[in-house]
Amino acid sequence: MTDTQTVKIEADAVHRVVIEYCTQCRWLPRAAWLAQELLTTFETELTELSLKPGTGGVFVVRVNDEVVWDRREQGFPEPTAVKRLVRDRVAPDKSLGHSEK
């Protein structure tokens, strides 16, 4: 495979993030804020980011259907922690700048 083919495959890659949040707990603002942070950081790497209403205290972040953060196991995430997890899956070579320190 040539470098051009590799770049084309990476450019065509679908990177989908879903943030599922509890409507009963009124966690939409928290989910929307995290979505904004991810979209700002990964504006060219993400092909889709969606907010999925749920119930029962759910707050889960998935990247390409893989759970990377679950509030029930890890508590509420700091944006930098989620950014690192998303970066590792969609753009491993991307620097997160001051968030890396």
Helicity, as a percent range: 25-40%
Largest sheet: spatial strand order = 2-1-3-4
**Spatial shape:** globular
Rounded to the nearest angstrom, the radius of gyration is 15 Å
- Major β-sheet annotation: 4 strands, mixed
- Say how many strands there are: 4
Class of one domain in CATH? Alpha Beta
Total number of helices = 4
Low-pLDDT runs: 1-9
Helix and strand composition category? alpha+beta
Order of helices and strands: HEHEEEHH
For the record, the CATH architecture of one domain stands as 3-Layer(aba) Sandwich
Proportion of strand residues: 15-25%
Distance between the termini: 36 Å
What do the pLDDT scores average to? 89
Task: Walk me through what this model shows.
This is SelT/selW/selH domain protein. InterPro entries: Selenoprotein_Rdx-typ, Thioredoxin-like_sf. Keywords: Redox-active center. A four-stranded mixed β-sheet has the order 2-1-3-4. The longest helix is centred in the middle third of the chain and has 14 residues, at 28-41. The protein has helices at residues 3-12, 28-41, 71-74, 79-90; strands at residues 16-22, 48-54, 59-63, 66-70. The chain has four helices and four strands, in the order αβαβββαα. The radius of gyration is 15 Å and the shape is globular. By secondary structure, the protein is α+β, with helices and mostly antiparallel strands. Strand 1 (16-22), helix 2 (28-41) and strand 2 (48-54) form a beta-alpha-beta unit. It has a domain at 15-65 and 77-95: Glutaredoxin (3-Layer(aba) Sandwich), CATH 3.40.30.10. Mean pLDDT is 89; it is low at 1-9. The relative contact order is 0.20.
